[in-house]
Amino acid sequence: MSNSTRTKLWVGVGASVLLGSGATSWADTPVADDLTQGPDSLMLAHADQGGEGGEAGHQEGGEGGEAGHQAGGEGSEGSAAADPFSVFAYLNASAGGEGGEGGEGGEGGEGGEAGQGIDANNPGIYYTNLAMMKGHLAIARELYQEGAQTSSQPHFGHPLQEHYEPLESAFETRGVTPFEDTLQALVDQAREGGEWREHADAYQVALQAIDVAMQDVDAELRDDVAFQSRVQLALLRQAKHEYEEAVENGQFVNVPEYQDGRGFMLTARSLLEQQAELFRASDEATLEELMAAYDEAMEAWPSAEAPQTPVMSHGELSSSTFRLESLLGRY
To answer: Are residues 114 and 134 in the same domain?
Structure first.
């Protein structure tokens, strides 16, 4: 796969947020950056991007505009007519309309109305939202196992509350078996309290359901080191945003956001470990550097429960993660 193909994957989610101000070469079309401003919204279509006057709609919509031209037809990941890394169909979906197939007026892909669905034809957005689900569950489990059962409860619910509904149209389009009841069963069990071992099976079933949904992305993409590095980079950027929301004037003002950030970081590092051979085959030296850079970045999140005072300011965290972002950006 060529680098020019890969550059299109994350265009629609704000290059300045995903890739940093020093990596603007990844963006080959202007987009609205406020798609990434809210907690847990890094990959979600926002309603405020909708309407015919919205920026995304103005740039990519219209009658047979670039989005419709690029997305084309059914827009399946393996179709020669639809670049599997293209985000243009997603831009159309977030620009409003009726969830068509790139037709008149900026009707967008198969992702439904703006703010209500994610374009099933954008594997990066789809895959990363599922990874975020795993991040929420990772921190929920860690808190529960450490005895902070009350603090864990909201995090068990976040996959349903913040990600599942926007993904439902993608599940339907992709033919993925719904697993809302599986996630809800875990939430209900965790509310009962008790020892973690009583809930471990429900937790594993929930993770397995998410993994099955992630496997629906074509193997060609899942096994592409650039795809995997961009997913990790997206999780990293969201974790930094959560940290920024959590800390103000040297104090924690929103501990759950700190915890979300730790969950996303744990998941990003876990993805690297799972894909270690893929990264090693591409650049073994960089893999070792990445592992070390993750350890350095995780110093901002020393534990599931927030320390009494932040280890780093947001600015210090940005400096600390610069190396990690640069290394991920090499792929």
So the answer is: no
Query: Among residues 97, 119, 141, which one ends one of the domains?
Result: 119
Residues 259-278 have pLDDT tens digits of: 999 999 999 999 999 999 99
Instruction: List beta partners, residue 251.
Output: 248
Are residues 11 and 52 located together in one domain of the fold? yes
- 3 state SS for 201-262: HHHHHHHHHHHHHHCCCCHHHHCCHHHHHHHHHHHHHHHHHHHHHHEECCEECCHHHHHHHH
Same domain as 165, residue 40: no
Question: Residue 285 has what pLDDT?
Answer: 87
pTM of the model: 0.71
Alpha helices in the chain (DSSP H): 3-6, 15-18, 55-60, 66-71, 88-94, 123-145, 149-158, 165-174, 180-191, 200-214, 219-222, 225-246, 255-274, 276-297, 314-328
Count of domains forming the chain: 2
Judge if 76 and 222 occupy the same domain.
no
Is the domain of 170 the same as that of 68? no
* C-alpha separations of 174 from 72, 134, 170, 213 in Å: 17, 20, 6, 9
194-211 tens-digit pLDDT:
999 999 999 999 999 999
Residue numbers of the chain with a pLDDT score lower than 50: 1-76, 78-116
Q: How many CB atoms lie within 10 A of CB 148?
A: 15
Domain with 51 in it: 3-119
State residue 77 phi and psi, 5-degree precision.
-65, -30
Rg of the Cα trace of the chain?
19
The burial of 249, by beta-carbon neighbours within 10 Å (0-12 exposed, 13-18 middle, 19 or more buried), is given as exposed
Q: For residue 51, what are the contacts with CB-CB under 8 A and spacing of at least 6? A: 57, 95, 96, 114
